[in-house]
Amino acid sequence: MTILVITEHENGAVAPATLNAVAAAAKIGGDIHVLVAGQNVGGVAEAAAKFAGVAKVLVADNAAYAHQLPENVAPLVTDVAVAYSHILAPATSNGKNLLPRVAALLDVDQISEIISVESADTFKRPIYAGNAIATVQSNAAVKVITVRATAFDPVAAGLPRDPAAVEHLATSHNPGISHFIDEQLAQSDRPELTAANIVVSGGRGLQNGDNFKHLYALADKLGAGVGASRAAVDAGFVPNDMQVGQTGKIVAPQLYIAVGISGAIQHLAGMKDSKVIVAINKDEEAPIFQVADYGLVADLFESVPELQSLL
Amino acid sequence: MKILVSIKRVVDYNVKVRVKADNTGIDLANVKMSMNPFCEIAVEEAVRLKEKGVASEIVVVTAGPATAQEQLRTALALGADRALLVETADELTSLAVAKLLKAVVDKEQPQLVILGKQAIDSDNNQTGQMLAALTGFAQGTFASKVEIAGDKVDVTREIDGGLQTVALNLPAIVTTDLRLNEPRYASLPNIMKAKKKPLETVTPDALGVSTASTNKTLKVEAPAARSAGIKVKSVAELVEKLKNEAKVI
Fold it and tell me: Which of A18, A96, A250, A256 to mutate to test the interface with B (most CBs of B within 10 A)?
């Protein structure tokens, strides 16, 4: 049994979610290979060769894979797929974009966003926004799986070890049907939401986008990432990439502080696996208190600055 | 151009679902069903493209039970021109749906296929990408903006950390994200008119598609409940608990 994990990377650095996907592969058992597809990805391949448990790195360094367009990368993956029992990718926007295309080319059903490995062919995954957990078995020759990063502790990277063997893939796939135009990435000095140890999130209770300054100040004191509920995003307070929830980002930090968030099901699905949850809301009936370890019924405009000053 | 929109009938997003006692699935008895919210956004986008004069015809399709006609009628009331039901009582995986849609694409020859990025029941997020693979078309997933420019479509995509824009050759597949548009409500006159619009029914067999799956759901359980904690009386008490009890700051 050999498992291929697709490496997620951005600007020459490995995305942390890759290490969680490798951890899921380790739970399945067997040899682990990783695929690095991109342009000028020598540094990424070098880093991947030092992940704990990785036996081999496949590198496809080619202009065709520069922006990981699925039209180009999917045939690259299917080229090598026959050698593998499982193909895994983190359930990031890239992984979600690419892997179903790979699965369909292989004529197998995919298993999306697994949260546990029961055996080499059986996995658990959330359905209905996490309101039910399905146990799914695959009899596909190649099992194609995306991994919810927050459900698996990452494997170590950068520990001293003999680097894994590196194999270069020379094939270039580019059907020429899709072209990258540009990317507008939000600039922030704060930690990325899904990687942050502490997340401070705001909801409709913040009343407007300007009031998020209270959360930014608190977050900077804590070294936290800042998120938002869908209600706050839909109201236009903050951009969509801050949304925590089933239709946004799934986070599981050590500490999650929900401020002015009522706790709709779809929001809870995105944060209920956090280690410690704090809720600050002036409505004591708010559903968020049903999942909070520590609830504070208070006006956020008084309590958030006070919290910041006491830290 | 002709646009094909694929939709799905799902448990309404306001319903709190319950797992069946025998752990075989979700209890769907007497539960309100609706069009998947991301599919509503797909229908809306197609209607807007028709209102702009870009699209000439909108065909809406779903694969599912006979009752899914309700959701097709809703799409017709929102502005689709005709509907197609691929009727089956079987539970369909994303790959099975993608294969059925591929057969429909072969027959209808649309220039653009719009789907929701994921259904809120199975949460798979697969069908659009799989249809793109089977048709060999380019894919613009998680779209927050769609602009047709000649024989191409520019799709702005919601990605981790921001937005990405790609140009895709037509025909292409687009899957919708939340911010693409805000779907309208169907007006009463349009609901009445929709009853007279054509709705055709076919079977997977007639399309020559096998819906067999490599996946099998063994059981469905309720998630482990997270128990409520305590209420603190003051910010000072909260800080004390976080420092000394939870030890997270």
Answer: A96
